[in-house]
Design a protein that fits this description.
28% of the residues lie in helices and 29% in strands. The protein is built from 3 helices and 8 strands, in the order E-H-E-E-E-H-E-H-E-E-E. The chain has helices spanning 13-30, 84-99, 114-119, and strands at 4-7, 46-50, 56-61, 68-75, 105-110, 123-124, 129-131, 134-141. It is globular, with a radius of gyration of 14 Å.
């Protein structure tokens, strides 16, 4: 599987469009999230994705707040059930651990995916919270 990781300014117009389209399809049309997607953080993120068109995607942030952060984790409906979500998260975790060794990695995990993230090594590190009308848990992998 070929993964692409790029900072915002290196994304082609087509790559950017495909990444945003996937986020819109899953978060807003499928899950009915009720918050803005454009949060002014895309410009600061690394964008990890695969597929043509893009069907697996997430954002990665370096440890500016004392931990790395992985967010906007999304897999197209037609690519689910094939291990693509796990492969995406493992690629993101591996990237963080290689680029910023020793830094913890934090996510805001949708509550129904808690076990999925625990199987990847994350642990709950706070109280459940609402994001966009969907229950989430803060989860963390300690630095390696």
């Amino acid at each position: 599987m070929t993964w692409t990781i790029k900072p915002f300014e290196q994304l082609s117009v087509n790559e950017l469009y495909q990444c945003f389209r996937l986020r819109e399809q899953v978060f807003f049309l499928e899950q009915k999230v009720d918050c803005e997607d454009m949060d002014d953080l895309d410009q600061k993120a690394l964008h990890l994705f695969a597929g043509d068109p893009v069907d697996r995607y997430c954002r990665i942030f370096g440890p500016e707040q004392g931990y790395c952060k992985i967010g906007r984790v999304v897999v197209a409906s037609e690519a689910r059930g094939q291990g693509q979500g796990k492969a995406l998260m493992q690629a993101a975790i591996d990237y963080c651990q290689q680029r910023w060794p020793g830094s913890p990695i934090k996510i805001g995990a949708q509550a129904y995916l808690r076990q999925f993230y625990e199987e990847l090594g994350f642990s709950i590190c706070g109280d459940e919270f609402d994001e966009g009308g969907i229950p989430h848990y803060p989860m963390l992998i300690e630095g390696c």
